[in-house]
Write a structure and sequence with these properties.
20% strand; two-stranded antiparallel sheet; 14 strands; six-stranded mixed β-barrel; 55% helix; alpha+beta
Length: 406
């Protein structure tokens, strides 16, 4: 086998320029394909990460009626016993984040705006999504304060800042009146753009008191130790609560529209990648075809002196494989270096403003997901196998006498 490897390696460098041109074409295709997928997937990975961290969580426990009617009337009772039951259901759970959420009117005396009020446990919330890192003014409230932290967009719309008093007016559980005055202790630049104009955070116990929902939550966010464990943890929790009123949702089930949009948006780059590889495949085929036709006499001589056709096919296969491997590995390494150097791309000017207007951050992060790298190797390997069919057929059907005379 070592002899065949040496023969194949020497053969591909007999026409050095032709081999380098073919390898360069494969490298170009791999780099372009990886970069297109990386930019698209990076943007969606960032969007999903922010949405999961600040909205749905990887897993969410809620009352079975809440998904159809997001009302405080469908909040559920939460205590230490329920928390322990959840933790005992699966040892891969790393975070449990309690939240109570509702819509209320926020006012400053002269202006009124709709707001999403979220009661949170600041310590648990920060361990889950680093929410304190987005604070731009003031500080986060203590757990026993009657205070709020508002998003920058809400601050601008109401013309309020740290130290001002925010008026919240709404309806609590079972139609109870809910209103109060709360000091603004901080302002955050909310990473989810659509929430930046309406988010109001307050201590969990204060929110439950305001909404007449003592010890009740609208949702409980559950995070596994690793994202890939989401489905398995969900299965464990569903088995635990299958006979009760609590249900478990994974983030794809709570955001199907986002996944559909992502798949639709990725269809374009995938089609371009397919076209690119078809073009490269024809170029690869041309190289192998030329190499094969130039060596018909050589093949005839080798077969006439006793070399078996199967072994000759193995050598030619290794030549095709070597060219593919060199091109793929070089392309993957070059793509990784380029992505590392440019990550992330920060937009500016009108492009940045257009992205902000659509509700996204003006950056293009790169994805370094392993599958987008090794899948390119798989595609090139498939192309190599298809291209190898030509020399395989040619060698198996070769007439030794005619070939040796050429």
């Amino acid at each position: 086998m070592l002899i065949y490897l040496k023969l194949a390696w020497r053969n591909i460098w007999r026409k050095r320029r032709r081999t380098l041109i073919t390898v360069s074409a494969i490298v170009f295709a791999v780099i372009l394909a990886i970069m297109m997928q990386s930019i698209n997937r990076g943007s969606y990975e960032l969007m999903i990460d922010r949405t999961v961290s600040f909205s749905t969580g990887y897993l969410q426990l809620q009352d079975y009626r809440y998904d159809d009617e997001s009302s405080l009337d469908n909040a559920f009772y939460y205590d230490d016993q329920l928390r322990d039951q959840i933790l005992d259901a699966d040892d891969r759970i790393s975070h449990i984040v309690p939240r109570i959420e509702t819509f209320m009117l926020a006012a400053n005396g002269g202006y009124t705006r709709g707001s999403v009020v979220l009661g949170i446990d600041t310590e648990k919330e920060h361990r889950f999504n680093n929410i304190r890192n987005y604070l731009t003014e003031g500080r986060f409230f203590d757990s026993d304060e009657q205070a709020v932290v508002i998003a920058e967009g809400m601050s601008d719309r109401l013309g309020m800042a740290v130290g001002d008093t925010l008026v919240l007016i709404g309806q609590g559980r079972f139609g109870m009146s809910a209103s109060g005055l709360f000091e603004i202790t901080g302002v955050i630049d909310h990473p989810v753009r659509e929430m930046n104009n309406m988010a109001v955070y307050m201590p969990l116990h204060s929110a439950q008191w305001l909404l007449s929902a003592d010890d009740h939550l609208t949702s409980l966010l559950i995070s596994p130790e690793r994202e890939r464990q989401t489905d398995r943890v969900a299965a464990s929790l569903r088995s635990e609560f299958e006979d009760g009123e609590l249900v478990v949702f994974t983030w794809p089930e709570l955001m199907p529209e986002l996944l559909e949009l992502m798949e639709l948006d990725l269809a374009g780059p995938r089609f371009i990648t397919l076209v690119l590889y078809v073009v490269i495949g024809f170029g690869f085929l041309g190289t192998v075809l030329t190499m094969t036709m130039e060596r018909i006499r050589e093949f005839g001589v080798l077969l006439s002196v006793g070399m078996k056709r199967g072994r000759l096919c193995s050598v030619v296969f290794l030549e095709t494989l070597f060219i593919s491997i060199i091109g793929v590995l070089t392309g993957m390494a070059a793509a990784w270096i380029i992505l590392w150097l440019i990550n992330p791309i920060r937009l500016s000017g009108e492009a940045a403003q257009a992205v902000i207007d659509m509700g996204f951050e003006p950056i293009l992060p790169m994805s370094f997901a392993a599958d987008q790298f090794y899948m390119q190797g798989l595609f090139v390997f498939i192309i190599a196998m298809v291209v190898f069919l030509f020399p395989l057929i040619k060698i198996t059907r070769l007439n030794i006498l005619n070939a040796a005379r050429n």
